[in-house]
Amino acid sequence: GHGHRVNTLAVSCDYICRTGPFDHYGKIADLEVRDRDSDEWREAAYKAAVAKYNAFKGSGEHERLISGSDDFTLMLWHPTENKRPIKRLTGHQQAVNHLAFSPDS
């Protein structure tokens, strides 16, 4: 891991975690029930979220995590596969305080 405290983390999971089961159009898979408190709607929302996750996971794309620290390094991780970093990125001149993944990366 890092030699000093971790200042920042960024995760790249193709926005699956951020969108979750949210249905932008108010309609989940032709479900006629509009009451979001009903068990039927919650079950459909859960299935939609699982389907999105499985589509992402089955795409072969790894979920990636990157951490930045006061020790002037970045660590690249595949957190769903291993608890150890896969790469240590060195060469920064100051502490790393901000990270972000580009949507097209």
Question: What's the structural blueprint in terms of helices and strands?
Answer:
Elements: E1 6-12, H1 16-19, H2 39-57, E2 64-69, E3 74-77, E4 87-89
Antiparallel strand pairs: 1-2, 2-3, 3-4
Summarize the structure in short.
This protein has 105 residues and is α+β, with helices and mostly antiparallel strands.
Provide an overview of this structure.
- The chain is an alpha+beta fold and 105 residues long.
- The relative contact order is 0.25.
- The protein is 22% helix and 19% strand.
- The protein is elongated and about 55 Å long.
- It contains 2 helices and 4 strands; from the N terminus they run βααβββ.
Give the CA-based shape: elongated
Q: What average pLDDT do the residues reach? A: 76
Q: Report the order of strands and helices.
A: EHHEEE
What's the count of strands? 4
Q: Which blocks of ≥5 consecutive residues have pLDDT under 50?
A: none
Cα-atom Rg, whole angstroms?
Answer: 18 Å
